[in-house]
Amino acid sequence: MTQGLEMRSVSKFYNAGSEKITALDRVSVKVEPGEFVAVVGPSGSGKTTFLSIAGALLKPSEGEVILNGQNIAALPDRQLSDIRLREIGFIMQASNLVPYLNVLDQLLVVKRMAGKVTSADKAFAVELLAELGLDKRMKNYPEELSGGEKQRVAIARSLMNDPGVILADEPTASLDTKRAHEVVSLIARAVRTRRKAAIMVTHDERLLSYCDKVYRMEDGKLSQMEPEPVRIS
Amino acid sequence: MFLALKEMRHSRTRFVMIGIILVLVSWLVFILSGLGNGLADLAASTFKNMAADYVVYQKGSKASMSKSLLSGELKADLLAMPSVEAASPMGIIMGSAVKESGDPEENKVDIALVGIEPGSFLEPAVTEGTGLDAGEPNFAIVNETMKNEGFGLGDTIILDGAPASLTIVGFVKNQTYNHVPSVFIPIETWRELAFAAPGSDKGLKDPVNAIMLQGKNIDPDAVSQRLPGTETVTRAQAIQGIAGYKEETGTIFMMLGFLFVISAFIVGVFFYVFTMQKSNQFGIMKAIGAKNGFLGKAVIAQVFVLSLISIAIGILLTFGTAAVLPKGMPFKLETNWVIAYSLVLLAIALLSSLVSVRTIVKIDPLKALGRVES
Hints:
The complex is a heterodimer. Chain A is α/β, with parallel strands linked by helices. In chain A, about 30% of the residues lie in helices and about 25% in strands. Chain A has a six-stranded mixed sheet with strand order 6-7-8-3-9-10. A four-stranded antiparallel sheet of chain A has the order 2-1-4-5. In chain A, strand 4 (about 60-65) and strand 5 (about 70) form a beta hairpin. Chain A is globular, with a radius of gyration of 17 Å. The model of chain A has no long low-confidence stretch (mean pLDDT about 90). By secondary structure, chain B is of the alpha+beta class. Chain B is about 45% helix and about 20% strand. The two termini of chain B are about 30 Å apart. The model of chain B has no long low-confidence stretch (mean pLDDT about 90). The interface between A and B is medium-sized, with 39 and 25 residues.
């Protein structure tokens, strides 16, 4: 069984009036556990569609999406929601936390969605938060956190269910350079130590050095870019 | 429950505000129901507490005592009918009473003079004093609210505009008719008062307003057929026939109905708007794997908790109100009705929250991706 995420010749079409728009054009990509992949490209190039399909939020028109050996391209919505819950960790743009939950509960709610919260879950949440330097902020609400802290909570939340795949959608969109580096390096570290297959969609080319592979998305086509000169992160 | 309670604690102000509206609505519902009960009792408690199953009226009287006039001789015919276990005549006229005190400016009190056969099943049990006596035409047993007007055992009531006086020999409980206290007197005495004017009895022998029947298996249609010129109705229909009764209770029920509809919209609209405001948040939660059921349950739990607390406060306020209402106010809370209306309010709130649940189901988790929130 292949671990990680693989997309085989995935296309997505939209109908806009009489026109058929190709948002994704036969995209193939493979991300192994422990691998951190970046997808860059101008807006409108299909990055979000790509991430939505990879994240089981959208079904492809054609092609296969293989998550931990299972083709999820044609599963019904209810099962997709289960896949998202158990197999995928999302890190979204800033302020995607639930406003009325404190930092610890942001993580535990993921477990609640799946059923019960055990004391082991609680210990794991505390451990994750400590790892991300949030041990002092566990009882704080999102409104009391800085942008960088919020994103660190989001990283911890994405890891909470121990998913196979981590998907990050512009995780640094609202952060300054210093915080952006901090957040992406934390994602990179978690991906490697916890052996996750990770894809980050970003505009920010300064952050690509943290990634193992970089793909460029243009007009729905995905192509691998030449690796940048290696920099020690 | 987890999400629901956390959110309610976090957004206390908005939940408290909607809670206050619900408290006021439920408070009003309970007060109206209390008033409705009180009024209905005041209008008809003599009939409601009467040990009769069926009432025989004159045909065409539409189950109204004041419109009906029958001969008391029908009693014998009725008793001969199958399933009729007991029959006893009754007559009611409205009047006013003055306490005999020698003071010409003594207050008058409205009363309903109810003529019955002493000792019959129509005579209510006294809570104080003795019952009627067939040999004492001037004995009367009266509703205990007359005590508030200064009447006591042994007092003499002078009937305003009639050459008669009565002696209070006993008090009874919950006996009112047409919103005034009932005064039970022997039927012969009642006849003298009711038909004082010559010819007003239309030549009937022993005229009465109606004859009450006991017997669970009486067929009212058969009775009406066997005795031409009569119509037999159930006690419940007789209560409906009391002048103004339907109109009065109908008004209260209409107001209650409106309140239920209003509360449905208040809860429904509030949670709908609230859900719309949070659609992005719901989208994110769906993206990270929350099922519709998980989020829907949170909304329903909030509505449940909010309604339950509001209704409970409404009940407390209602009992508080009942305690400070003036004594003469027709207000009667019945636990059964309070429970029933609470359940109706709760059910309506929960039903109206389903609109929000539907909205949640429709929210696309894709909302979570690719947009920078403002």
